[in-house]
Amino acid sequence: TGDDPLLADLMPWSVPPLRTGRSWVLAPDPGTLTARWDRLLRSAGRAERERLFRPSRARGLRTALPQLPGHSAGTGPLAEETGPCPEPVRVLHAPFDRQWLIPDQRLLDAARPELWRVADEHQLFAVEPGPAPRSSASARAGGPDGPGGPEEEALLFSALLPEGRSPAGRPGRIRPLFRRPGGREPNLAPGLT
Q1: What is the DSSP secondary-structure string of 100-129?
Q2: Across residues 105-128, what is the average pLDDT?
Q3: Residue 186: strand pairing partners
Q4: Which pTM value belongs to this model?
């Protein structure tokens, strides 16, 4: 109703969702990710490595970036990488879909290091649904996304770092329960505790 507070009023700090930019960095098991990493590094020549990597505007084989907080990975360009696959971590890819991810910022178009910094055994993440696409036919008919606003979606909560998709599959906002590692400094509006 109109009197209910918005989640942003209760949990002010939020972060946009992760954006992997390439599907091969996620898999149902760590062994698959290690095999994919090894294949990338064993590829014959730059053209083959680029084909396997799938560069984007945000990431390429020459991109050098720092490690994600709490994870060991190379920092130099992937074109020169020779080391082992960074240890895969469990993430929430979508509601009820846990996957493994290679935690290497050079592979992820938008890794969101601020989320990795606070992701630990004390953390709980709320995934807020993104805006529903508005269809003109539904608006004329007074449907769920017509007059009166979009159909409400449930919040998703996870102890795993979420990729950031809402239950409907749209990108949402990620709201960590704590602003600091170790369960310190709740992400709650002043006066709520």
Answers
A1: EE---TTT-TB--HHHHHH-STT--EEEEP
A2: 96
A3: 178
A4: 0.85
